[in-house]
Design goal:
Layout: H1 3-27, H2 31-54, H3 59-90, H4 96-114, H5 121-161, H6 163-173, H7 178-216, H8 222-232, H9 241-253, H10 257-286, H11 291-305, H12 309-332
Length: about 325
């Protein structure tokens, strides 16, 4: 390769990287839609191949049918769930002083017992002034959610239309030999499939059992508490305790300490332990993934990818470990 060809090659690499960074920054608000489409594509690609290869249905019709299936099975239930949560939250008293009152009540009790004031006047003023900003953030998140749903449907359809060509293209540009390329793609498919199925299944099981506990111990709004518990399962380390501990504390401060203690024990002995047990079983059953990869993958993924980080965070960590093992086998083991 002469100097002119080297100049062309490296100039092209610089142009590709520069334009890639610009495009990535501009498309970041729609990243959840792209990653969601990729996740559903991995789940339904087998159906697409069956319809086009076995049933000889045209790709256009097959892509439309599977996109409609994804809308009915994945997106409509999710949109309905968000709509129900928004309706439930609209019934909440949005007066800042009313929202701060329970926190003030707790700190007053602590100050009376210990003499230590957890919530001073400055902190109280800051919390009250922050509530409108939190409301704007929630409304902005809902708007972003709706936009990303449309992006997901649009991108998924064209992924299905060009699925085989897309997979061949990705396979060709990966800088690995055939064996390592196959391993990377297999790891990608297994990890995405296991997290896309296993994490929602864990959330539904754990949220359902928690809802039974909320009903038994007299929680005021069991549906909203149960749904929030489902979503809290994806939060690393803390998990569902982020919901059932404040709920138990609220019941206790309302005067029903018997049910509050019962809910706390139920959460500690049943809900929390069930999380560890089911997560371990599902990950081992579906992908043989170490629980630490899932936990720390979610920690890494949530800031990077938002809600889709529960799937692509563990994938990122799994691929990193796979690349390290690949480097060891290809280059370091030869020295022995």
């Amino acid at each position: 390769m002469n100097n002119k060809e080297k100049y062309w090659k490296y100039s092209l690499v610089v142009f590709i990287l520069t334009m890639g960074i610009i495009l990535f920054r501009e498309l970041t608000p729609y990243m959840s839609g792209f990653l969601g489409a990729l996740t559903i594509y991995v789940l339904v690609r087998g159906q697409m191949h069956y319809l086009t290869d076995k049933r000889n249905i045209s790709r256009n019709i097959a892509a439309m049918l599977i996109t409609l299936e994804a809308i009915l099975c994945f997106l409509v239930p999710l949109a309905l769930l968000v709509w129900v949560i928004v309706n439930q939250m609209q019934s909440v008293n949005l007066d800042p002083h009313a929202l701060i009152a329970p926190i003030q009540k707790i700190t007053d009790i602590i100050e009376k017992r210990t003499g230590f004031d957890l919530l001073g006047n400055d902190t109280l003023t800051f919390l009250i002034s922050s509530l409108p900003q939190i409301g704007k953030l929630i409304m902005g998140s809902i708007s972003s959610f709706v936009i990303n749903l449309f992006v997901l449907v649009f991108v998924l359809y064209f992924m299905l239309m060009g699925g085989k060509r897309m997979e061949r293209y990705v396979s060709d540009i990966l800088p690995f030999n055939r064996t390592n390329t196959a391993n990377v793609l297999q790891e990608f498919k297994i990890t995405v499939r296991s997290n896309a199925v296993g994490i929602p299944l864990l959330a539904i099981i754990q949220g359902g059992i928690a809802t039974l506990g909320y009903w038994f111990f007299g929680v005021p709004d069991i549906f909203l508490a149960g749904v929030l518990t489902c979503f809290a399962t994806v939060i690393p380390m803390v998990g569902t305790a982020l919901i059932w501990i404040p709920v138990a504390l609220y019941i206790g401060l309302s005067g029903d300490w018997m049910n509050a203690i019962g809910l706390f024990l139920f959460g500690s002995l049943v809900i929390a332990q069930l999380d560890n047990l089911i997560r371990f079983i599902l990950q081992k059953k579906m992908a043989d993934t170490h629980p630490l990869i899932t936990v720390f993958g979610v920690v890494i993924g949530l800031p990077l990818f938002g809600f889709m980080g529960i799937i692509f965070g563990p994938l990122l960590l799994s691929l990193f470990l796979l690349f390290v093992d690949m480097f060891k086998r290809e280059y370091l083991d030869e020295r022995k």
